Amino acid sequence: MTDTSGLSRRGLLGAVAGVTAATAIPAAPAWAADDQRPGALHHPKLDRYDRQIVSELSSERALRHLQVLSEDIGPRIGGTASEKRAADYIAGQLDRFGYRTTLQPFPVADKFIAQIEDVRGILPDDLCWQAGAAPGGKLDVSVEGPVRDVGPATAPVWPADVAGSIVIADDTAAARPAFVAEAATRGAVGVILLPADLVFPRRASAFQPAGLTDAPIPVIGVAQVQKRLIREALAVVTSLPLRISTKAHRNLISNNVIGERRGRSGANGPIVMVSGHYDSVIGAPGANDDGSGTVLTMELARVMSRLNTNATLRFALWGSEEQGLIGSRYHVAQLPQDQRDRYKAVFQNDMVATSWDPAITYWILSFTGLANTATDAVRASGERLGYAPQMVGPVLRGASDHQSFQEVGIASANFSWRGEISPAHLEPPYHSPEDTIAKNVSLERLQVSMELIGTAAYATARL
After folding, report:
1. Roughly how many angstroms between the first and final C-alpha of the chain, as a whole number?
2. In which band, very low, low, confident or very high, does the pLDDT at 6 lie, cut at 50, 70 and 90?
3. Among the four 87, 220, 330, 404, which has the fewest Cβ within 10 Å?
4. For residue 117, how far is the Cα from the chain centroid?
């Protein structure tokens, strides 16, 4: 049941039934409980409690939630209406599973977001065309015009027909104010700033261009893949008219979503938490980051709602992680010490389903670099499932919500599929418009992640 004191009600309870039929669906896993998993060293050696988890988990069910989050809703920017839609949907599902569900609100910074529309339908429509808007540009407007590429903003080559156009240029922060002023003086109706390419496998994300004050036209910052596609289109068509719209989102409130079911030990007993973050960055649908960790948490909440545990179970989806772990840090700050002392383990899941082939290592990431109850439990599950050789860690790394808990002494870790050389080797669609189900989600990796975390969390909570 949901605690509604001071909280909005849910609006997307039935959305899972109306997901987009056109999604390119990844292949679903087809193994039975005792089958050797892809990439595993040996057949699983499951105990009867493990079987209660793995026999019920469904990556296809999780996929339906992911379609709602990354396609029906799309980018879920902290504090905006899109993030709130996602919070309402998640809370409604936890309600259905029988948890006492709360939204925990907290304030976040203003956001400035742009949308690109292709008037002629030339640009690919299988990725996101959201971008960042400059806070110092013209906001809450929509402009339309043909694209004119002037090259680098530091040394633009201006064509004669700039008036009425949308100008694109390779961005340099120091050159922005003078370049935007010149574009406006020449009659441009808008500016699209293009980021420098990053070193593979990283790709530049959409950005909110800073350093402008009261620019008379909208100015937006796109992602590396959007830059490439716009320039490729300009190379083969005579005209590429675009419409860009900007919007300021102010006085924002983000939310954590937390579902709880009390264990046999009662109100003062231990707590085991499974978590992910449900927001995404500007310009990214967030299918893997971190829609995958969100739907893992939701599917485990469904399966574990039927199981008898000694510990209280909490399933948490954090808001505004992408802005600096704001939601989880707010949550931890509200916990009195006697509540912090009840936590046995927090299993954080951030990017657990990428389809990027080189992401063959399952990283166990600890903010302290040391082992704890959470890391030990997942290590033990990996041994039983045959995945020990693919697991590395614990390795010292923060940068996700486990850090908020470890900063105050709560046993926690983040779990994630990444490149084998380093946990910093993230897939190319990371934080990009290509972080979609079709381009960046493997249901096999999602299923394995659910099995690892589910069996570990149940083993920790059961006794």
Report:
1. 25
2. very low
3. 330
4. 23
CATH (one of 2.40.10.120, 1.20.120.1200, 3.40.630.10, 3.10.450.50) for 15-109+251-462: 3.40.630.10
pTM of the model: 0.94
pLDDT for residue 26: 86
Burial class of 314 by CB neighbour count within 10 A (0 to 12, 13 to 18, 19+): buried
Closest CA to 452 of 296, 302, 277, 272: 296
For the cut 70, the answer to whether the pLDDT of residue 3 exceeds it is no
Q: Over the range 68-98, which residues count as b (16 or more CB within 10 Å of their CB) and which as e? A: bbbbbbbbbbbbbebbbbbbbbbbbbbbebe
Kindly report the number of other CB atoms within 10 A of residue 324's CB atom. 12
CB 434 within 8 A of CB 447: no
3-state secondary structure of 445: helix
Residue 384 has pLDDT above 60, yes or no: yes
Q: Closest Cα to residue 186, out of 158, 214, 163?
A: 163
Show the tokens assigned to 47: 């105990």
Report the SS3 class of residue 247. Answer: strand
Sorting pLDDT into bands at 50, 70 and 90, what band is 23? low
User: How is the chain split into domains, by residue range?
Assistant: 15-109+251-462, 111-249
pLDDT-derived band at 20 (thresholds 50, 70, 90) equals very low
Residue 412 belongs to what H/E stretch?
strand 412-418
- Asked if pLDDT for residue 11 goes beyond 50, the answer is no
Q: Can you tell me the distance from the alpha carbon of 402 to that of 397, in angstroms, rounded to the nearest whole number?
A: 10
**Nearest partner of 375 among 296, 290, 452, judged by Cα:** 452
